[in-house]
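FORM 12-B: Structure-to-Sequence Request
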């Protein structure tokens, strides 16, 4: 199964036949991420090289850990101007998300699917009557601030946030912040992330992995601290001896700090 996206096309300076590293979006188009492709999704791609070579295949959209760089594997090559083998890229090519002939559904299959819509709707109605949630996914935009609402805002080189409704009021939230820039923020203020897609029903903790971050003396680890009914949260460090320190803005190295977060909580 592949992920589809509209107007996703980027430049690549990659050479050779291996994994592709993405550059900027082609004017008039957007990056894969901006078009809705999530990390580790598979897409049907089209490569057009400057020497008129071309390649259609299926690849995995991913990123080296801790890096804002985006890449695409060339996992399965369906067709190419090189007899079905990977083309040798010259360093001046474009990569697009496409739908190939094999992705189109036969009209007879569509008829069968349409006939089953009533059954699916009935299933959804049963789930809703039993107060069960249908699993849904979406994206959210984390906002870095030195205040619970408003405040001085930070920025990042790139930010990605997604969530999954797990059912029974549970939600799993993730985000990745690359090259955090705290210029203009109050260094001694709490480091606050605003914009949770849904507020938690109770106080909850999650998992955080900061990089280029100065830990408090005696600090053990960093965890997100969610407050009941709030769509913002802080980061805390349990300190040896039993006390807790709330992370401040100046603990992040401005311009190079990264942060990965994973939260699961009741709404």
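FORM 12-B RESPONSE
SEQUENCE OUT:
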């Amino acid at each position: 199964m592949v992920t589809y996206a509209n107007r996703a096309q980027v430049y690549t300076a990659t050479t050779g036949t291996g994994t592709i590293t993405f550059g900027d979006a082609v004017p008039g188009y957007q990056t894969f991420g901006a078009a809705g492709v999530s990390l580790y999704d598979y897409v049907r791609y089209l490569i057009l090289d400057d020497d008129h070579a071309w390649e259609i295949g299926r690849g995995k959209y991913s990123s080296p850990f801790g890096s804002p760089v985006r890449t695409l594997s060339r996992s399965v090559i369906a067709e190419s101007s090189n007899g079905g083998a990977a083309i040798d890229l010259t360093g001046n090519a474009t990569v697009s998300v496409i739908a190939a002939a094999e992705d189109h559904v036969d009209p007879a299959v569509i008829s069968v699917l349409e006939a089953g819509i009533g059954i699916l709707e009935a299933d959804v109605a049963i789930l809703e009557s039993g107060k069960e949630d249908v699993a849904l996914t979406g994206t959210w935009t984390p906002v870095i601030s030195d205040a619970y609402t408003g405040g001085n805002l930070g920025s990042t080189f790139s930010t990605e946030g997604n969530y999954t409704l797990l059912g029974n009021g549970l939600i799993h939230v993730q985000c990745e912040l690359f090259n955090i820039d705290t210029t203009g923020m109050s260094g001694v203020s709490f480091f606050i992330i605003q914009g949770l897609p849904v507020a938690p029903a109770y106080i909850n903790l999650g998992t955080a992995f900061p990089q280029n971050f100065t830990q408090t003396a005696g600090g053990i680890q960093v965890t997100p601290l969610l407050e009941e009914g709030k769509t913002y949260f802080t980061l805390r460090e349990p300190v040896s001896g039993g006390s807790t320190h709330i992370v401040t803005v100046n603990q992040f190295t401005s311009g190079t700090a990264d942060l990965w977060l994973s939260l699961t909580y009741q709404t």
